[in-house]
Automatic annotation (TrEMBL):
It comes from the Bacteria. Coiled coil: none annotated. Pfam families: Fer2. This is 2Fe-2S ferredoxin-type domain-containing protein. Residues 153-238 form the 2Fe-2S ferredoxin-type domain. InterPro entries: 2Fe-2S_ferredoxin-like_sf, 2Fe-2S_ferredoxin-type, Benzoxazolinone_Detox_Enz, Beta-grasp_dom_sf, FNR_nucleotide-bd.
Length: 238
């Protein structure tokens, strides 16, 4: 609505470049691509790129039935040699353990689909080397804040010489915005990474779906829209 109501021909707009937390590493030795439902959308683009590069890959496409599986004709036409179709109404559900039992050294797994699929992959990936699994989520596990299960904490903004209180009923992003601190945000579900802030002191309760295990263990950045302080105080480079 802002663009329709405010922006006029000749106005100069300052915009940021695109961000991508689900980018394809083209240096891997081999690839397994897994799509669930409309999750085929980013996966088919990856398959196209790998085919063009001549990289070895397999593609698992899962859905309730062929009639409801988007882009199926094109997937079969362009990636039939690498494709295994899993249509539930045909009794061909994907067995992740079997499909990934012989994961080769240097192989990477890319997946997009329903949360149940990604959680199952996450459990398997706990035994894999860091950076093997890459996923894109449709939605966050939960973006509902339950004050009864949260605690308030203090946030020190080192660069601004401000100290704020984040109540058990609000997110860090809400507290920063209320204090007039401009932190960019977009999804507000911990999915996009736009609201990332740098942390210089304190322990973080990470709740996003952006950072890897290694990035979380570094304890130096967090997503303000959903993550919180594990203790009573955080210091941010703001």
């Amino acid at each position: 609505m802002y663009f329709h109501d405010t922006v006029k021909p000749g106005d100069i707009l300052h915009i940021a470049g695109p961000k991508n937390h689900f980018h394809l590493d083209e240096t891997a030795a081999r690839y397994t691509l897994i799509a669930g439902g409309i999750g085929i959308t980013p996966i088919i683009a990856m398959a196209d790129r790998l085919k063009a590069l001549g990289k070895p890959y397999v593609l698992h496409y899962c859905g309730a039935g062929r009639r409801t599986m988007a882009f199926l004709e094109r997937v079969e036409r362009d990636h039939g040699a690498a494709l295994t179709l899993h249509a539930s109404d045909e009794g061909c559900r994907l067995d992740l353990s079997s499909a990934l039992s012989s994961l080769a050294e240097g192989e990477q797994v890319y997946a997009c689909g329903p949360e149940r699929l990604l959680e199952a992959l996450g459990s398997l990936a706990e035994k894999w080397p860091e950076g093997t699994l890459h996923v894109e989520h449709f939605t966050a596990r939960s973006n509902i804040l339950d004050p009864e299960n949260e605690h308030a904490f203090e946030v020190v903004l080192a660069d601004s010489d401000l100290t704020l209180q984040v109540g058990n009923h609000q997110t860090l992003l809400e507290a920063l915005t209320a204090a007039g601190v401009d932190v960019p945000s977009d999804c507000c579900e911990g999915l996009c990474g736009t609201c990332e802030v740098a942390v210089t002191e304190g322990h973080i309760d990470h709740r996003d779906l952006v950072l890897s295990r290694t990035e979380r263990d570094a304890n130096d950045r967090m997503m303000a829209c959903c993550s919180r302080a594990a203790g009573k105080r955080l210091t941010l480079a703001l």
